[in-house]
From TrEMBL:
Species whose genome carries this gene: Azospirillum isscasi
Name of this protein: FAD-binding protein
Similarity annotation: Belongs to the ETF alpha-subunit/FixB family.
Every Electron transfer flavoprotein alpha/beta-subunit N-terminal domain range: 3-181
Positions of transmembrane segments: none
Highest rank taxon of the organism: Bacteria
Entries under InterPro entries matching the protein: DHS-like_NAD/FAD-binding_dom, ETF_a/b_N, ETF_a/FixB, ETF_alpha_N, ETF_asu_C, ETF_asu_C_CS, Rossmann-like_a/b/a_fold
């Protein structure tokens, strides 16, 4: 019956990277229709239609969908889902809010943070902070799941799918309302989409010293990440945290500076393609996952690297 992929939509813009990566993750399941729900999303729908691997774009353009509130989008999906065997979405904060509600409405289970679609019924997802991967077989009539997209290659452009308006009347939410978005402004790449991430840990010792990490990151055109210890100590803002209770990243290059490599940190970065660790303790667990390790004092090594770059 095919797959319905709920596109990542921010404001009126398509979250192209997450949507394109999700398309690659779903490639083995047959035809994929993409739902673009939002307010003023004609351009986003056209952009989605140009992605390779899209059969059809359904566009639900209505102010009720402007903020991706769970209630109106789940109501819409509950109607659309009857025509599909699978409803999936990148595991964004919005989708992690919408799809469980949809699953509840349809009385089926939801699978979150799927990292591999094994076959039409079988999905792999991390458990225990990424220390184990469980393979789940679903007998539900409609499989509903969110995808961790970081490690998938984004589907390219060059597609030319048809864009079809959704013939469903939008219902505004009666039980929740959007109040405000507080969006961090940064000239650096977005942490979860960056090709290079430089992260600092507790060893930095202060917010002022964390500038060493930022300086190296800026030389590399990288996003800045941090361990929870660095965030909890006030050296780095909360939205930089990488790990089990932070962000999940899988860049081409991850540089961990003064980070011990606790399992909760590894849970958020161990799928990175190349991991470089700088730590003065040669026994630090981070070296077990590192491709390149430098046993050194970061206060000497980082300024030297930044200077050389
Ligand atoms: P530390 O463990 O203190 O390590 C500092 C490292 O710096 C050490 O290896 C030391 O050798 C090295 N060092 C010290 N001085 C220098 C120097 N001058 N030069 C070079 N190296 C130096 N953590 C996360 O990061 N993300 C999470 O999302 C997260 N979620 C958690 C969820 C739960 C439920 C729990 C219980 C914990 C979670 N944690 C998380 C915390 C995690 O367990 C660790 O406490 C944390 O990752 C440690 O941060 P750190 O490596 O910066 O600090």
């Amino acid at each position: 019956m095919g797959v319905l992929l709920v596109a990542d939509v921010n404001g009126a813009a398509l979250g192209r990277d997450a949507t394109a990566r999700a398309l690659s993750a779903l490639a083995g399941l047959g035809d994929v229709d993409v739902l673009v729900a939002g307010d003023g999303v004609a351009a986003a729908a056209a952009e989605a239609a140009a992605l390779q691997g899209v059969s059809k774009v359904l566009v639900a353009d209505d102010p009720a969908y402007a903020r991706q509130l769970a209630e109106p989008v789940a109501d819409l999906l509950a109607v659309l889902a009857t025509g599909y065997s699978h409803v999936a979405a990148p595991a964004t904060a919005s989708a992690q809010n919408i799809l469980p509600r949809l699953a509840g409405m349809l009385d089926v289970m939801v699978l979150t943070n799927v990292i591999q679609v094994v076959d039409a019924d079988t999905f792999a997802r991390p458990i225990y902070a990424g220390n184990a991967v469980e393979t789940v077989k679903s007998t539900d009539a409609v499989k509903i799941f969110t995808l961790r997209t970081a490690k998938f290659t984004a589907a390219g452009a060059g597609g030319g799918a048809e864009v079809v308006p959704v013939p469903v009347a939008a219902k505004a939410s009666a039980s929740s309302a959007w109040v405000e978005d507080r969006i961090a402004v940064s000239e650096r790449p977005e942490l979860t989409a960056a090709k290079i991430v430089v992260s600092g840990g507790r060893a930095l010792g202060s917010k002022e010293n964390f500038a060493l990490i930022e300086g190296l990151a800026d030389k590399l055109g990288a996003a800045v990440g941090a361990s929870r210890a660095a965030v909890d100590s006030g050296f780095a803002p909360n939205d930089w945290q990488v790990g089990q209770t932070g962000k999940n990243v899988a860049p081409d290059l991850y540089v961990a500076v003064g980070i011990s490599g606790a399992i909760q940190h590894l849970a958020g970065m161990k799928d990175s393609k190349i991991i470089v660790a700088i730590n003065k303790d040669e026994e630090a667990p981070i070296f077990k996952v590192a491709d390149y390790g430098l046993v050194a004092d970061l206060f000497e090594a980082v300024p030297e690297m930044t200077g050389a770059l």
